[in-house]
């Protein structure tokens, strides 16, 4: 496949197709992933081309889906499981955190579970209750799980490849409101390591660290700040477990300020861990406290109010202003 510009959803589709072609042990399974091609059409055409034995429409039973994937992995398969929406993952939470995450340690390293769990997450699509959650911190807290989230089509393609090749279970959070954002994807490129953060915009006055859906917002914030003569560096974290603290530290040592941005609630969110670690590592370089911007500590609101709930340009710019005022 030659390099081409494609939507993030299409990039994941192409990545799954590549994996299915390369390894007969790779399976795709989940609710409506086959005949329908997924509610976001991410798996469109895969069952037609690879058959019902490899792209499997499952019952509406998340615990059963993940439990079956664990059994398949024990038999040498590499299942890629789709949880149809973020809020649907909780019936499978017990299987994920007490079985999938623990088996490698329980078996003293003799058993590997190469399972990828795809979760479309976040808001911005005007959905109903249970369809716009951001539960990534719940999984990042669990030892034994890798947790990643791409922000663009190129990373989506390559990070999915790397997740499937991993012998450890990977929770793959897909920012659903970015599914239609396009970027260049080169299948012949040499990808960065799965858990490496990227500096996607260089700057000198302050670092913005984000992942998934908020990276685009931080790009917009940096562009707006530039018009006021402020130079903001934007980091795409890409991975939440593990986190590439070395890249964050190097950026903060240069800029002296850090604002962490995510859709999930600020309270006990991933930004808290980043803020604490960077304060420990960069105490003598910081010119201001590490600030966090995210959702409110409240249930996700009805669609007509979600723009008030989600961090946007103004809320992030306000944090930038406060950090630069020190």
Features:
single chain; 326 residues; alpha/beta; Rossmann fold; 2 domains; seven-stranded mixed beta sheet; five-stranded mixed beta sheet; 12 helices; 35% helix; 20% strand; globular
Provide an overview of this structure.
This protein is an alpha/beta fold. The chain has two domains: 4-185, Rossmann fold, CATH 3.40.50; 198-325, Rossmann fold, CATH 3.40.50.920. Helices cover 35% and strands 20% of the residues. The chain has twelve helices and 14 strands. It has helices at residues 8-22, 46-50, 62-74, 93-100, 103-106, 136-140, 153-165, 214-226, 245-255, 270-281, 306-309, 313-324; strands at residues 4-7, 26-30, 55-57, 78-82, 116-121, 146-148, 170-175, 182-185, 198-201, 206-210, 232-236, 239-241, 258-265, 291-295. A seven-stranded mixed sheet has the order 3-2-4-5-7-6-12, with helices on both faces. Strand 13 (258-265), helix 10 (270-281) and strand 14 (291-295) form a beta-alpha-beta unit. The longest helix is centred in the N-terminal third of the chain and has 15 residues, at 8-22. It is globular, with a radius of gyration of 19 Å. It starts with a strand and ends with a helix. The model has no long low-confidence stretch (mean pLDDT 97). Pfam families: Transket_pyr (PF02779), Transketolase_C (PF02780).
Topology:
Blueprint: E1 4-7, H1 8-22, E2 26-30, H2 46-50, E3 55-57, H3 62-74, E4 78-82, H4 93-100, H5 103-106, E5 116-121, H6 136-140, E6 146-148, H7 153-165, E7 170-175, E8 182-185, E9 198-201, E10 206-210, H8 214-226, E11 232-236, E12 239-241, H9 245-255, E13 258-265, H10 270-281, E14 291-295, H11 306-309, H12 313-324
Parallel strand pairs: 2-3, 2-4, 4-5, 5-7, 6-7, 10-11, 10-13, 13-14
Antiparallel strand pairs: 1-8, 6-12, 9-11
EC number: 1.2.4.4
InterPro entries: THDP-binding, Transketo_C/PFOR_II, Transketolase-like_Pyr-bd, Transketolase_C
Organism: Streptomyces montanus
């Amino acid at each position: 496949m030659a390099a081409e510009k494609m939507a993030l959803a299409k990039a994941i589709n192409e990545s799954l197709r590549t994996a299915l072609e390369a390894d007969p042990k790779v399976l795709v399974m989940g609710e409506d992933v086959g005949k329908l091609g997924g509610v976001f059409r991410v798996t469109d055409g895969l069952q037609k081309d690879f058959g019902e034995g490899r792209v499997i429409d499952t019952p509406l039973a998340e615990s059963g889906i993940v439990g079956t994937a664990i059994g398949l992995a024990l038999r040498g398969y590499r299942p890629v499981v789709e949880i149809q929406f973020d809020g649907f993952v909780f019936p499978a939470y017990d299987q994920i955190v007490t079985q999938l995450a623990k088996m490698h340690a329980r078996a003293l390293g003799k058993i590997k579970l190469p399972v990828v769990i795809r979760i479309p997450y976040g808001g911005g699509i005007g959905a109903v209750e249970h369809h716009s959650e951001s539960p990534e911190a719940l999984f990042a807290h669990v030892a034994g799980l890798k947790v990643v989230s791409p922000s663009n089509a190129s990373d989506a393609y390559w990070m999915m490849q790397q997740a499937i090749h991993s012998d450890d279970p990977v929770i793959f959070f897909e920012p659903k409101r970015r599914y239609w954002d396009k970027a260049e994807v080169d299948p012949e490129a040499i990808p960065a390591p799965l858990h490496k953060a990227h500096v996607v915009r260089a700057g000198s006055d302050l670092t913005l660290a984000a992942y998934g859906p908020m990276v685009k917002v931080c790009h917009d914030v940096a562009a707006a700040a530039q018009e006021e003569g402020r130079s903001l560096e934007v980091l795409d974290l890409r991975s939440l477990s593990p986190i590439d603290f070395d890249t964050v530290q190097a950026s903060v040592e240069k800029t002296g300020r850090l604002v962490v941005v995510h859709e999930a609630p600020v309270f006990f969110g991933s930004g808290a861990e980043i803020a604490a670690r960077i304060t420990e590592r960069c105490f003598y370089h910081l010119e201001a406290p590490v600030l966090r911007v995210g959702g409110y500590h409240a249930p996700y609101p009805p669609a007509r109010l979600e723009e008030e709930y989600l961090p946007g340009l103004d809320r992030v710019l306000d944090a930038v202003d406060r950090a630069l005022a020190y």
